[in-house]
Amino acid sequence: MAMISIGGIIGAGLFVGSSVAIAATGPAAVLSYLLTGILVLLVMRMLGEMAVALPLTSSFTEFARVGLGPWAGFVCGWLYWYFWIIVVPVEAIAGANILHQWLPLPTWQLGLGLMAVMTAVNLMSARSYAEFEFWFASIKVAAIIVFITLTAAYVFGWTSPQGTTLGNLTRYGGFMPSGPISVLATAVTVLFALTGAEIATVAAAESAEPARAVAKLTTSVIVRILVFYVFSISLIVAAVPWTLVRAGESPFTLALRTMHFGWASTAMSAVILTAVLSCLNSAFYVCSRVLFLLAANGDAPQWLVQVNARHVPTRSVWIGALAGVIGIFAATWSPHRVFAFLQNASGALMVFIYILIALAQIHLRRERERRGDPPPALLMWLFPWASYAAVAGFTAVVVAMAVTPGQQQDLYFSLVTLIVVFLAYAILRRRRIGQPATVLP
Fold this sequence. Notes:
Amino acid/polyamine transporter I; 75% helix; mainly alpha; single chain; 0% strand
């Protein structure tokens, strides 16, 4: 469970996506990671409280159903599935592009090969997924520890010929060259990178002690965020001028090259490939389990409920595989448009999902207090103010997107997706209400 949580947090969003945050915000990108990490921590703590209070609830998307009603379970479940079903082709395309540097094969063939391997892994069992994720996460953690060690020695002047490089934090336009609003606006990019901490709550349903596993993870996730994200990004902007960082290019590779490590490009490409495969593996797993839960609650076709002898929802896995294959071929025909659309389509979906989770926790806590139920072993900090702060923080991120020209399109796509899901629920609810009337005399 711990390695699944780490694997969910550390992905290509850190190794490559952090370049977008640094290029837009400068050294103050560290604050974006810190603020967003705190918001994610609050959500994870709320999930921990609900997991202990409701040990039979099998996935974090289902807490929205229990706390706010069927509509919230439908909306949260389908938005989360949609977010990860988009990740499948995005990561498959990214992995194929990296492999193309070493293998003289068309990217679409390499992408199909990756899809075949990950489909096979996820058709085996939850244990197979966990084993792969364990080793993927181990490689990523080892790489970050090595990077932090080498870069810290350089930044503090132990290996740097010119001495300490901490002056880079303020030398090129100041610590916050794009102003304070950029810190909040960049939170969306950062949130996309940090998405995945909650995957452990999905996987915990197939562990021996789900509530205990979730409760334990919620207390340690902030340490990983601080060490792996905040510390490594801080070292990058201290080691190299932030003006040299280019969006879409790994700032980790740039920092290693600045420190004159000739093996930087090859080593980081291998690490990034591991991160991509890890994320692809997780996306497959999450898509299949969330879709299975939606079907079990009557929010998706019932034929998706079927599982094999290893308790794997195979039909849901095959749907994820189909989405990946379609995305790979579409990207082959129109690479730039498809990739941009897939990323824009995910936009602020996780912001909406986290808001629903926070509202569900507030409602469930109020209900328990009203009934006089004994408090669970794990409680949300500073309730209700910390819970309200989480809702306010995510709402502020949405507002920042609305006033930031470069992110308005992402917000538009996300709002359209949200409206479509609400309309789908309204249609489904009308059919459910109408069905009894058609069979009764």
